[in-house]
Write a structure and sequence with these properties.
CATH architecture: 3-Layer(aba) Sandwich
CATH class: Alpha Beta
CATH topology: Glutaredoxin
Order of helices and strands: HEEEEHEHEHEEEEH
Shape: globular
Strand order of the largest sheet: 1-10-9-4-5-6-2-3
Largest sheet: 8 strands, mixed
Distance between the termini: 36 Å
Structural class: alpha+beta
Mean pLDDT: 89
Length: 193
């Protein structure tokens, strides 16, 4: 009798459809991150290989951003902490790629990304180097004309999920909500649909 119950439970679990991501768009054919040249928050030269070996949540923004950037990074940090508290693994690294490399020095990027937790990565460099990455991933950014140094930068607000093979695996569009990441990241990182 016990064997029959266990067999029934096993079959029921095997026949249930896999969990489905509700907010994340998982790409059916992930593309490799394009070649680019930049620097990290420590001033080290980096390229596309920086995205290999771990899952990454990549957001394109800038340290002088008044609202969207800090709010999005806080959502990612809070969701990551909630996943850690729930014992979920692996936990993705949070990456901020500057779309304002003229002002975002490595030191400033380091201070900024550290505010949102340990182990985060800040990427900056030249406009040309950052453009190699953004153009290859379909990320838009444009510096707005201004008479002083308090200019703004328009940019895409999506969060990209890069897999450990350095491939653009999934995408979260706005608005960014903690619960969407807490629900969908374990599915995305487990290779769900």
């Amino acid at each position: 009798m016990v064997a029959a119950v266990l067999a029934g439970a096993y079959l029921a679990n095997r026949l249930q459809p896999p969990a489905t991501a509700e907010s994340a768009m998982i790409l059916p054919n992930p593309d490799v991150v394009p070649a680019f040249s930049a620097v990290d928050q420590h001033g080290n030269n980096i390229d596309e290989s920086v995205f290999k070996g771990q899952w990454d949540l990549v957001f394109f923004g800038f340290t002088h951003c008044p609202d969207i950037c800090p709010m999005t990074l806080q959502v990612l940090a809070t969701a990551k902490q909630q996943l850690a508290d729930a014992g979920k693994s692996p936990l993705p690294r949070i990456v901020l790629v500057s779309v304002d490399p003229e002002r975002d020095t490595p030191e400033l990027m380091g201070q900024y990304v550290d505010y949102f937790g340990e182990g985060n990565l800040g990427i900056t460099g030249t406009v040309e180097g950052i453009s190699q990455l953004t153009e290859g991933l379909g990320i838009y950014f444009k510096k707005q004309p201004s008479d002083d140094e308090n200019y703004n930068v328009d940019h895409s607000a999506a969060v990209l999920v890069i897999d450990p093979d350095g491939r653009f695996h999934a995408l979260f569009g706005g608005p960014h909500v903690i619960e969407n990441y807490v629900n969908d990241l374990p599915i995305v990182l487990a290779g769900g649909s």
